[in-house]
Amino acid sequence: MMAFVWKRLVGTIPSLIGVVVLTFFISHALPGDPAAYFAGPAANAASIENIRATLGLDRPLPVQFVHYVGDLAQGNLGRSLTTGQPVLTDLLERLPASLELSSFALLFAISIAIPMGVWAATRINGSVDHACRALVTVSAAFPTFFVGLLFVYIFYFLLGWAPQPLGRLNEIAFSPPPHVTGAYTIDALIAGDWPVLRASLSQLILPAISLGLFALAPIARITRAAMLEALGSDFIRTARASGLPVRKILMTYAFRNVLLPVSSVLGMVFSFLLGSNVLIEQVFGWQGVGAYAVSAVIASDYAAVQGFVLMMAVLYVLLNLAVDIFATLVDPRVRFEG
């Protein structure tokens, strides 16, 4: 197993090198002048040039790249111009918020998509199957930010059922729980602070559903297709001919073969959700890495943009590695064929 893990990790090195190179040069092609932004609107040309020299932006681009790679090798992602803090510190402070939001969105999508996909496959062309296809089409058709704005209008503005979409917690009424993981719901649960847990969950429901609806479509579609293929297999026909109970055929034999394609999709969907947080965090005032990246792009904050993209790439690699390991546990042939 360790040889398999090392092989996968070594195989990701060229991809990470490509991400570092592309991110550096693309971020420096962004419109705007970070020196002018940092100097402020009242600065003159001389002071802007002075700041540009201080930040090292007056040097040739290849020289800046060599310095960037040298810092990266020491674990230094640079310093953000917008917050004044090291980029690594900023990202680690905000990452738990984005992971919490993405995890709840994925749980919401899984809890609906997988049972619906299985049910639709057993009722092919029936009412459940048509309802599944309609929900998949509708949920994939609307962009996440539109669904988020629609939910805010209906459930907060019209009905008053949801709290104000102003972040992870109403910090006027509640204090954040003691920091353990950075995820407010988990930290409140560990501290036994039930009012903060309820308040955190109430803030989380609308953004998680808005994000999860888009993730629901590919999971339900893959589950239905994989389940149909499994139900049409020879071993299922043999199980039926042997008189085994329907529940055992579905859950023990058919669904086990569905786990492999569904787990592969879940890894990609979770990576997609982390990237999609950029829009949802803006709509709901969520203090995650997505909102941080948007602010960095607007300010042409090169170090913050590069750090965000590199962190997303590393998370994507780790998620795919986790999916590969899970696949070998479900079907050991994957390890030998890989």
UniProtKB/TrEMBL annotation:
CDD domains: TM_PBP2 (cd06261)
Domain ABC transmembrane type-1: 95-327
GO molecular function term, any single one: dipeptide transmembrane transporter activity
Pfam family, one: BPD_transp_1
Domain of life: Bacteria
InterPro entries: BPD_transp_1_N (IPR045621), MetI-like (IPR000515), MetI-like_sf (IPR035906)
Transmembrane spans: 101-122, 134-159, 204-223, 258-280, 308-330
Subcellular location(s) per record: Cell membrane
Entry's Gene Ontology cellular component terms: plasma membrane
Statement: the UniProt record of this protein carries the keyword Nucleus: no
Name assigned to this protein: ABC transporter permease
PROSITE patterns documented for this protein: ABC_TM1
Keywords noted in UniProt: Cell membrane, Membrane, Transmembrane, Transmembrane helix, Transport
Annotated family: Belongs to the binding-protein-dependent transport system permease family.
Its membrane topology: Multi-pass membrane protein
Predominant location: membrane
Source organism (scientific name): Bradyrhizobium barranii subsp. barranii
